[in-house]
Amino acid sequence: MARGRAPGPQFASVEPMLADPSRPGTLGRRRLPVLGPPSEDDAGRVRPRSARISLTDRCDLACVYCRPSRSDGYLERRLDEEAWRTTVRALVQSGVRRFRVTGGEPLLHPNVVERVAFIASLGVEDLALTTNATRLARLALPLRAAGLHRLTVSLDSLVAERFWRITRGGRLATVLAGIDAALDAGYPELKTNTVVLRGDNDDELAGIVTWGWDRGILPRLIEVMRVDEGARLPPEKLFGAHEMRERLAHLLAEEPGEPDPGRGPAKYVRSRLDPRRRVGFITGTTDTYCGSCDRLRVASDGMLRPCLATNDGVAAMPLAEAGNVDGVAAAIDRAWALKPDGRTWKGCTEPTAADVSMRSIGG
Ligand code: SAM
Fold first, then answer.
1. 64 CA from centroid of ligand 1 (Å)
2. Which of 50, 155, 210, 341 is deepest in the core (most CB within 10 A)?
3. Does ligand 1 have an atom closer than 6 angstroms to the CB of 252?
């Protein structure tokens, strides 16, 4: 299972790097820094450069592809403030430069603004957050002021009744108010994530894309993955990226799509008419991308997870609670050594993915 890679340059620097807004980027309404290639360690393994850190496994929605209901049980304990800060310091010491705050629903955490401010204070390259936006109207501005660079909002439908059904109780108007607040707060980049489900929202793709473009939002369309509740949906619910491309053929250039280096697995395709407008496709089911994954996940109980598609990981809560930054950094090394081989591992199509709780480990 250990990840094998050709030897590469030694990983040396652990100094936090400041974002440089003058370097050219390609997304959103303002320029963002272009990120460098992943570093490698002495053994030639790609080091974790990017962490998805879950603030809580709690969520106020129960999307049909994510969890069976709102009462499916929560973790018994989560990291307290000091233990959480110790974990973040250890991540930075281990070379992590890009953070995505997630959940569960991260905006349910009472200290979300303080936690974002703490990560920002370490001078990281990139600080993003994924949210369902039910509390974004109130928090968009404080989060921006705390140093959050980028926001991604889950938005599975622009039809209120459908939205309510897919999210099991979500109110579209509340989410749209949250998106408006984020637009007003002036984030350099705002994206939407739409999980495309055949028969539920596959007829809305052009509508969601043009709605986003009209607001300066970068829409992303996601294949449903066989993780957690997604593995229990009928297989025909999968609406593959090639079908999405067919639906959007009148809007998009005929090009294969390019990832934004260092910014995750989405491949972006430009608009036919305006190359500044793009759509991202995330193909976790039809075309997996484990070979380029430099991502570590940290659950809200301090469990360090090298891969979304297995329950392998290292429990770091005791070390974090003892304030042992070096100890947590060593645990990060142990967790990273469990990362599956990126050449043969097929990510969320592996059978182990069905037993993973997306909501608990930070989807
Ligand atoms: N609560 C936040 C939100 O709604 O964005 C963050 C956590 S949520 C688990 C993160 C992302 O995972 C969402 O965009 C969601 O749509 C996606 N997701 C969850 N289960 C999925 C699945 N089975 N397949 C594909 N995407 C999934």
1. 10
2. 155
3. no
Cα-based angle 40, 41, 42 (whole degrees, multiple of 5): 130
112 closest CA partner among 129, 126, 98, 87: 129
Distance from the alpha carbon of residue 142 to the mean position of ligand 1, in angstroms = 23
Q: How far apart are CA 189 and CA 163, in angstroms?
A: 24
> Are 104 and 59 a contacting pair, CB within 8 Å?
yes
Distance CA 332, CA 296 (A): 9
Q: Tell me which of 57, 152, 154, 224 to substitute to probe ligand 1's pocket, judged by most ligand atoms within 8 Å of the beta carbon.
A: 154
Q: Which residue has the tokens 């629903």?
A: 105
Query: What is the dihedral angle through the alpha carbons of 324, 328, 334, 338, rounded to the nearest 10 degrees?
Result: 160
Closest CA to ligand 1's atom 11: 363
Provide the residue-wise pLDDT of the chain in tens; the chain has 363 residues. 333 322 222 222 222 222 223 322 222 333 343 333 445 555 555 679 999 999 999 999 999 999 999 988 899 899 999 999 999 999 999 999 999 999 999 999 999 999 999 999 999 999 999 999 999 999 999 999 999 999 999 999 999 999 999 999 999 999 999 999 999 999 999 999 999 999 999 999 999 999 999 999 999 999 999 999 999 999 999 999 999 999 999 999 999 999 998 888 999 999 999 999 999 999 999 999 898 899 999 999 999 999 999 999 999 999 999 999 999 999 999 999 999 988 889 988 999 999 999 888 877
Candidates 72, 108, 130: which one to mutate for ligand 1, based on the most atoms within 8 Å of Cβ? 130
For 210, other C-beta atoms within 10 Å of its C-beta total: 15
Q: Which two tokens stand for residue 333?
A: 């090394």
Output the pTM of the full model.
Answer: 0.89
